[in-house]
From TrEMBL:
NAD(+) binds at residues 134, 198, 203, 220, 239-240, 267-270, 298-301. This is Alanine dehydrogenase. It catalyses: L-alanine + NAD(+) + H2O = pyruvate + NH4(+) + NADH + H(+). Its EC number is 1.4.1.1. It comes from the Bacteria. GO terms for biological process: L-alanine catabolic process. GO terms for molecular function: alanine dehydrogenase activity; nucleotide binding. InterPro entries: Ala_DH (IPR008141), Ala_DH/PNT_CS2 (IPR008143), AlaDH/PNT_CS1 (IPR008142), AlaDH/PNT_N (IPR007886), AlaDH/PNT_NAD(H)-bd (IPR007698), NAD(P)-bd_dom_sf (IPR036291). Residues 149-297 form the Alanine dehydrogenase/pyridine nucleotide transhydrogenase NAD(H)-binding domain. One of its GO terms (cellular component) is plasma membrane. Residues 4-137 form the Alanine dehydrogenase/pyridine nucleotide transhydrogenase N-terminal domain. The lineage of its organism: Bacteria, Pseudomonadati, Bacteroidota, Sphingobacteriia, Sphingobacteriales. Substrate binds at residues 15, 75.
Length: 370
């Protein structure tokens, strides 16, 4: 198969979807890989390394999209890329469709095959291609939150861990999945007073077992969220309903009861956010303030730490990339239920129910296309 590796063009997105090692693996299986010039630069990989791994460098993004049967990316195509996507071309990347109608409409119109990293799902319901980036973003959320709590950046001026004789900051984590667990661990490690909420009692039991004593587990209900939010210095949004738009757990109306200078980090922003006032921001301009509360809503947080994120992401994606290249998307998805769950758009039809539901668009079960 002819595989294309474009350079990411989202704001401050420094990751790349294949390392030179990944290219070598595809070449070993008989595939041809075209790499856009400087695609790996942000992650520390030179064009020469891709060439010696067996890849061919192309100067422009247009040439890469034009020649490739499968495009392997990190982030969803942005507007300038929509016109480059071809009918029957396979795109394997994060899409987060349910939070972005224009992207959904553009990919439907393109008649391409969109296989989304974030909905590839194992039998145990875990999301193997989301996990590594959620680990990164969960850990980063506390670094960012601690930073924006500093007075010169507009925050309350409280140190997460406090010091001897002074109370630590209160951190509220909404959602106890991968992002939430990593955030709670980091905040606890810094000595904060942490509360983590989830709607799953078995998950809360597990978290209560593994997390240290300065993390309390609490059932996620509107009442409990409202009470905990009033006292929180830092709130992390980390809920997910796979493929669907996130529920608004912190509403516009709750903001007036929050502490002035409190910080909200809505990691779930890529699925629309679980804080009603959240809208996507960029690494260049990451925050905005409403009612005296700082909002940090960067939709590609791991893009800022590409030396960690590119390796973590490609460790997880490469086996699936090789399988798709070896078998083609049809056979690969027929045989492999995990990959089949990743199919969101096929040839002009939405085949993932919660994406269709998010926009009241028509839905066509994936089985009709395999
Ligand atoms: N902004 C960024 O750069 C990044 C964003 N993300 C996003 O972070 C979000 C979370 O991802 P993961 O932790 O991997 O998901 P996950 O599936 O591991 O965890 C989500 C948790 O939310 C819980 N949940 C669902 N509804 C809830 C409610 N009403 N109240 C409390 N908990 C609720 C679920 O029970 C589950 O435990 C996703 O939207 C993901 O795309 C992930 C990585 C990077
Ligand atoms: C998961 C995701 O959206 C990211 O890593 O940017
Ligand atoms: Mg994202």
């Amino acid at each position: 198969m002819i595989v294309g590796l474009p350079k990411e063009i989202k704001n401050n997105e420094n990751r790349v979807a294949l390392t030179p090692g990944g290219v070598a693996e595809l070449v070993k299986h008989g595939h041809t890989v075209y790499v856009q010039a400087t695609a790996g630069e942000g992650s520390g990989f030179t064009d020469a390394e891709y060439t010696s791994a067996g890849g061919t460098i192309l100067p422009t993004i247009e040439e890469v999209y034009n020649i490739a049967e499968m495009i392997v990316k990190v982030k969803e195509p942005i507007e300038s890329e929509y016109k480059l996507v071809k009918p029957n071309q396979l795109l394997f990347t994060y899409f987060h469709f349910a939070s972005h109608k224009p992207l959904t409409e553009a990919m439907v119109a393109s008649k391409a095959i969109c296989l989304a990293y974030e909905t590839v799902e194992k039998k145990d319901r875990s999301l193997p291609l989301l996990v590594p980036m959620s680990e990164v973003a969960g850990r980063m959320a506390i670094q960012k939150g601690a930073n924006y709590l500093e007075k010169p950046l507009g925050g309350r001026g409280i140190l997460l861990g406090g010091v001897a004789g002074v109370n630590p900051a209160k951190v509220l984590v909404l959602g106890g999945g991968i992002v939430g667990t990593e955030a709670a661990k980091m905040a606890a490690g810094l000595g904060a007073d942490v509360t983590i909420m989830d709607i799953s009692l078995p998950r809360l039991r597990y978290l209560s077992d593994i997390l240290p004593a300065n993390v309390k587990t609490v059932m996620s209900t509107t009442y409990n969220i409202r009470e905990a939010a009033k006292n929180a210095d830092l709130i992390i949004g980390a809920v997910l309903i796979p493929g669907a738009k996130a529920p608004a757990l912190i509403t516009r109306e709750m903001l007036k009861d929050l502490k002035p200078g409190a910080v909200l980090v809505d990691v779930a922003v890529d699925q629309g956010g679980c804080i009603e006032t959240c809208k996507p921001t960029t690494h260049e301009n990451p925050t905005f303030v409403i009612d005296g509360v700082i909002h940090y809503c960067v939709a590609n947080m791991p893009g800022a730490v590409p030396y960690t994120s590119t390796l973590a992401l490609t460790n997880a994606t490469l086996p699936y990339v090789v399988k798709l290249a070896n078998k083609g998307w049809g056979d690969a998805c027929r045989e492999d239920e995990e990959l089949r769950k990743g199919l969101n758009v096929i040839n002009g039809q939405i085949v993932y129910k919660s994406v269709a539901d998010a926009f009241n668009m028509s839905y066509s079960p994936v089985e009709n296309h395999l």
